[in-house]
Specification:
It is a single chain. By secondary structure, this protein is mostly helical. It is 67% helix and 0% strand. It contains ten helices and no strands.
Length: 238
């Protein structure tokens, strides 16, 4: 039990009479900053990567909310608009393919390695057996053109394009003009347009190749004789 004359009681009485201890604002702030900068207070803080990722997602969220507020229908309307844009872009990409690096007429049909039509056909069949339809279409079109050159229906001309070959061959094989143009278009789409060939497109070109082998050409002299005979028959009828 404390007595009134106890030294500790007297000491407490003296401190009670004094004003409380105060620290100026700036030193207190600096002391608090030093204390809070200790490692023990930051052991569970997120890493710099996590902070950057959080800031990015906060920005995306604000951007989405701003766009949604400006779009009729709110967030649902914004989703519908984005889906429609993606569908349009996908349809254009599928229809047009990737941009071509240059005009088709500037690219040659053959490379610098001379090969026979049989060689190109064998290469085409090998690619087709492995399901490599792009290469199969390319090699089969080359086989068609090389075969026409071997039959002297086309002159051997380096740098010829598939379109040029189809146009020239159509003059001596007029019954296959449309199919030749279609085959040249398939070749161009695969080679320069970034489109993917299909098994059906390869079989169409392969069937054209076989049909051309069995088709007799319409030579210029024969065409002139046929035209003259036709005109003579018309004159006699008149």
């Amino acid at each position: 039990m404390l007595r009134a004359d106890d030294p500790s009681v007297l000491s407490l009485a003296r401190y009670a009479d004094q004003p409380p201890l105060t620290i100026p604002r700036d030193p207190a702030r600096e002391a608090a900053r030093r204390e809070l900068s200790k490692r023990m207070y930051h052991e569970n803080d997120p890493s710099w990567f996590q902070r950057a990722l959080n800031a990015f997602w906060d920005w995306v969220d604000k951007l989405f909310n701003s766009a949604a507020s400006a779009t009729p229908g709110g967030p649902l309307g914004l989703v519908v608009v984005i889906a429609a844009v993606l569908l349009v872009v996908g349809a254009l990409w599928w229809r047009l393919g990737s941009p071509r690096r240059g005009p088709v007429s500037s690219a040659a049909l053959f490379d610098d390695r001379p090969r026979s039509a049989a060689d190109h056909r064998a290469a085409a069949e090998a690619h087709a057996a492995q399901g490599h339809w792009n290469q199969a279409v390319q090699e089969r079109m080359r086989a068609i053109v090389r075969s026409l050159e071997e039959r002297t229906l086309l002159d051997i001309r380096p740098g010829r394009t598939a379109d040029e070959a189809a146009a020239e061959a159509g003059r001596t094989l007029p019954s296959h003009t449309d199919r030749l143009r279609s085959a040249a278009s398939d070749f161009d789409d695969v080679t320069y347009g970034g489109r993917a060939a299909t098994e059906q497109s390869y079989h169409r070109i392969a069937e054209l190749d076989r049909d051309l082998e069995r088709t007799k050409p319409v030579l210029a002299a024969s065409a002139s004789s046929h035209s003259a005979a036709h005109n003579a028959r018309q004159g006699a009828a008149e």
